[in-house]
Each structure stands twice: as C-alpha cells, then as structure tokens.
Amino acid sequence: MRSLKEIFIERQEGILRIAIKENSKLRECFIEEESDEVFAGQIYKGIVKNIVPAIKSAFVDIGLKKNAYMYLDTKFKNMGTKKGDEVLVEVVKEEIGSKGAKVTNALSLPGRYSVLQTLTRELTFSRKIENPEFKEAVSRGIVKPRDVGVMIRTNAVNVGIDVLNEEICRLNAKYRELVKKAEFSNKPGLIFDYGGILGRVLRDKVDEDTSRIYVDSREDYEYIGSFLAENTDVRAERVYHEDERTLLDYYGIEKEIMGLRHRKVYLSCGGHIVIDRTEAMYVIDVNSGKNVKGTSIEKTVHQTNVQAAAEIARQIRLRNLSGIIVVDFIDMDNSQHRQEVLDTLSSGFAGDKSKTTVYGFTELNLVQIARRRTGKPISDYIEEPCGQCSGSGSRLKFSYICLLMRNELLRISGQRDLGHIHITVSGMYEKDIRGDMLGFVRSIGALDKKVYLTVSKSEGFKVEPLIFDSQVQSLEQFRVFG
Fold first, then answer.
1. What are the strands, taking DSSP E only, across 278-413?
2. pLDDT at 466
C-alpha cells in the first residue's frame, strides 16, 4: 500500500524545525538553530595551518574558533598538501566537544536527480539503479561537464534526460560560482551551504508519495515553490499556515516532539523499550512489560520483539541517534523469529539517508546497529545540563520552554482577550528568567500584558489567564512585568 507523506516546516526566530509524517505517524524530525556551528554538506574556503603526518591529517582554518581536520590520502589526491595552502573543503562531520569538524577536499554538490563530484570525471550510477536500458539511455544522452564527475541518483528514473541535463547544468553553474567566490575571497569562511536543512529535506525526503508541504514562512513558501517547479516528478501541494498558533503546535506535533525526551517507549502489545545514552554508545532494552496475556511464552516474546524492532527503527530515526547502538531483545531460540526481527529492523531504515548497518544476533542475544552520524541528536536541541548540582542531569532547554510558553499563550489568547497572565515555572528556570526579564517576556510574546510569576518544584510549567479582579489582587506581590 502506498504511503501518504506530509511535511511540516516551522520557522521561528533563531530556529527551523521540520517534521515528516507518513500515514499520520511521525517518522522524522529535523531541527536547525541559527548559530556559527558547521553542518555536514557546507563548503568552506580554508587555509592549511598544520600537517600532522603521524595521523595523516591536515588541520585547516575555515574561519571558526576550532580548526577543522582533513585526512590525507592518495584517494583524495591531497598528499601534496602543504602548510599555508588555500583549499576548498566540504564538511563531512560536525564538531564534537573539543574536536573540530571533519572536512574533505572531495566536494559533492547534490541535486535531486544527480550529484556533481569534483575528484573524478566519471559518470556513475546509484547502486539501487539496476536497469541496464536506463543506464545506456543516460550514458548516450547525458551532457556532462568534462572536468567533473556525475553520479546519477535513483530519483532520476522518474524523469526524462532533458530534466536531468537541466539539473546538471544548474549544479555545474553553482560549482563554477563557488570556485570563483573562493578565488576572490581573501579570508577563510563559508562559501556555500545548499540551503541548509530545508534544502536537504526537499532534495532527499520529498517524493511522489508527498501529498502536502505545510509552511509558515512566506520566504520558505516561495523557495518550496521554486523547488517544485524545477522537480517535475513531485506533485505535492503547498499549504501556507496563517494561524497565530505555531504550525507544529496547531497540528499536534509539538507534544510528540516532547515525547522524544522520554527513555521509555510503550508498545501496543503491552511491552516497552528503554533507550539509554552512554559515553560510547546507545543501549536499548526490550521488555515484555504487561504483555503477559498469551498462553505461549514463545509467541509473546516473538510478538514483543517484532513490535519492538519496528519501534526501535522509528525511534532511532526520529531522535537521530547515531554511532554504535546495541539492542538487548528478549531471548529467542527460534531462528525464523530472529530473522523476522532483523528483517523488521532493516525495513525500518528503508529510505534513511544516514547509512545504517544492522548486524545479526550475538551469542548474548544482542543486535548491533551502526548508523552514520548526520547532525546532532534531537535531544541536544531540546535538552541542556540542569546546572543544579555536579551531576549529569538534564533539563528542558530554557529557550525551548519559552517557545512552549509562547505556544500556550497564543492558544489561550485565541479564546479570550488577556491583560494579565500567571506563569508557574520550575525553580530551575528562575535564575534565567529574572536575569533577563525583558528578554523572557519578549520571547513568550507577552510585552503587552502584565505578567505574574510563581515558582514550583515540578519540572514543567503552567500558563493561565487572570480573569477576575480577585485573582489579580491575590497575586499582585508576584507581578514581575507590566
């Protein structure tokens, strides 16, 4: 059965969030904050600052606080790199802790149907393209620039040669433009960014199954319109969101994103999975929980493990977990049941652009998953260290809780005209609020209101209108603004 895909794009001050639903179920979520951080796919002009032969790496100044590092290898044709050289590099991995970004001189400019590659002059095809007649037709009809390579993506099978050649021409023009820009730039810095996360989602996630794209920014609405005009195999409808409530809150997605903070995820069969993060890897435990109604233990275990496998793949993609992931399934002896679990896991990663490998069961009944890192996990955008003690606890990000308060205030304001609002918030945020009261009130959209603040011991918050004079008088001592 064909899936129905909807994409929700919400842009607010300083943050872009994109959610993808398939058949009304949240499948993927992407967040990008306005910052000086580097992102995979960006192209920078850099200056080589140091060569370290022992680790076969060059350290490159790309205009940020931390130098990036680039592997030196004959396959990258960069063994002659010297200190002081100016280089064009593409970010492969973002910064981690004190470690700078990983970059490469092998540039690739991706389109929807093809990828321009600078270290080769070959015409190649995606491994998923097996039709020899299609390959032959493309090889005869393609107009390829002489000094670069072109890789044909799987989406190309849905369009004609003319459309493919038009895209290659556009990509080649972009490449010439960024090379020229780098030549005339006298200092290291960002040269090209592909449209950020929005451009990547449009290229990699929008397809013939996409029915609607919801967007709340007029600029993004026009950008998506241009994309749809250039990509004839997509028939998605653009929907401009004009309601005062934020887009993700309006469509109920905000609650689902908040749910990604929880370690425990329940399954429909009554079982659950528990997701934990360690310094070296993620560990996921599968439990039968309340799934004890069946008369056969083997059937109960099989049912729980299969459901868990499907949910684990979904959660990994939703939370953008990467690196080494170890799953502890409930013990199974039946080899067919084990294979079904592995097949369910693998199918859950179909269409995932982050390369993922699922390994077979170990003797301890563990399954290992390796997933390439692309961006940060969602938890890094919505959580931060609590700072209350010397432990390793976390709290909802202050900026995120302000966003949620603003959503709640907009919801309440849509029901009645408000002049006074009472906010109850956890004590762990009191210092942040009182340290910049004007900034806090502005961030929640309450500059035209009188704000009353009280503190509680619970982690959450509450926003409520003060309708009666008696309510206002009883809280007068807690008024902090207006």
1. 282-287, 323-328, 356-361, 366-371, 383-385, 394-396
2. 92
Which residues, including other chains, have CB under 8 Å from residue 386's CB and lie 6 or more apart?
A: 393, 394, 395, 428
Predicted confidence (pLDDT) per residue in 238-282, tens digit: 999 998 888 999 999 999 999 998 999 999 989 999 999 988 899
State pLDDT tens for residues 440-456: 999 999 999 999 999 99
Classify the C-alpha dihedral 122-127-128-131 as positive or negative: positive
Residue 192 · residue 42 · CB < 8 Å: yes
Q: Give dist(CA 109, CA 117) in Å, integer.
A: 7
Opening angle at CA 120, ends 127 and 41, nearest 5: 75
DSSP 366: E
- The C-alpha atoms of residue 158 and residue 135 are separated, in whole angstroms, by 13
Question: CA 220, CA 144: separation in Å to the nearest integer?
Answer: 31
Measured torsion, CA atoms of residues 402, 407, 410, 411, in degrees rounded to the nearest 10? -140
Tell me the CA distances in angstroms from 152 to 40, 137, 148, 435, one per residue in order.
21, 12, 13, 54
User: β-pairing, 237-240 with 210-215?
Assistant: parallel
Rounded mean pLDDT of 142-153?
96
Q: 56 pLDDT exceeds 90? A: yes
**Strand pairing of 102-104 and 68-71?**
parallel
| Tokens of residue 305, six digits | 């493990």
Handedness of CA 230, 232, 233, 237 (dihedral sign): positive
Beta-bridge partner residues of 68: 60
Query: Amino acid identity of 228?
Result: L
CA distances for 416 relative to 247, 310, 372, 408, 410, angstroms: 20, 44, 49, 13, 10
Q: For residue 161, how many other CB atoms are within 10 A of its CB?
A: 14
pTM for the whole structure:
0.87
Burial bucket for residue 100 (CB in 10 Å: 0-12, 13-18, 19+): buried
Report which secondary-structure segment, H or E, holds 425.
strand 420-426
What is the tens place of the pLDDT at every residue in 173-186? 999 999 999 999 88
CA distances in angstroms from 229 to 9, 110, 224, 225, 235, listed in the order given: 19, 18, 9, 6, 10
Tally of CB atoms within 10 A around 62? 25
Cα pseudo-dihedral 349, 353, 359, 365, rounded to 10: -50
Burial of 388 (0-12, 13-18, 19+ CB in 10 A): exposed
Cα–Cα distance measured from residue 342 to residue 26, given in angstroms and rounded to the nearest whole number: 22
Sheet containing 114-117: give its strands across: 108-110, 114-117, 149-152, 123-125
